[in-house]
Amino acid sequence: MDETLKLILRAHEGDKTARDQLVMDNVGLIWSIVRRFAGRGYEMEDLFQIGSIGLMKAIDKFDTTFEVKFSTYAVPMITGEIKRFLRDDGMIKVSRSIKELGLKVKCAREEMTYELGREPTIEEIAGSVGVSREEVAASMEAGAEVESLYRPVGGSDDNQLCLMDRLEEENNEHEALINRMVLKELLSSLEEGEREIIVRRYFHNQTQTQIAQDLGISQVQVSRLEKRILKAMRKRFES
Question: What residue stretches are annotated with the RNA polymerase sigma-70 domain (predicted)?
């Protein structure tokens, strides 16, 4: 088994050493992504810390049955975390000191949640960061409005919609309608078995392993079928 996969499996079992090693092994990957956002008015070290959070989320959520390299999965997670920070940070202007403390609190909160297996208290975060409870509360409150805009509003999967998605959708109803029409046409062109796989994967958010178990085939077969079907759908769309 690939050494990275072994470390991920150990990390999923609660091995902090394995998790830390994965972070160290991917420092170069984080920096390569951070450099893409240079010149945005933010310290590179700050963006590196945000990117590290994205990497840790990738470690925690990576499915070892995926037929992709971990780095391939981690890149969009790291990039997304940085983009989300830049987007959210621009919505409410707060003092630099509060902003820097908020970043430290966010990192400490992520790390402690993993280590403790639960959400840490304000007192625990304050002790970890080395500031008062009031300062921690103030830094968290400063980002409360932004957080509420991106709070999930339905479902339990990672791709669920948030309030901001709904607001954006209202401004793009025409485009969304066209997309739905194209998607409906592409799905209708598939055979029943092919359509079931795509619907399960992208509408019901099932893993390849779950689909394989339900259909009585191997995960490898599901993966190959999915790739072939998507390739065919893209070809039909482009034509």
Answer: 46-59, 207-233
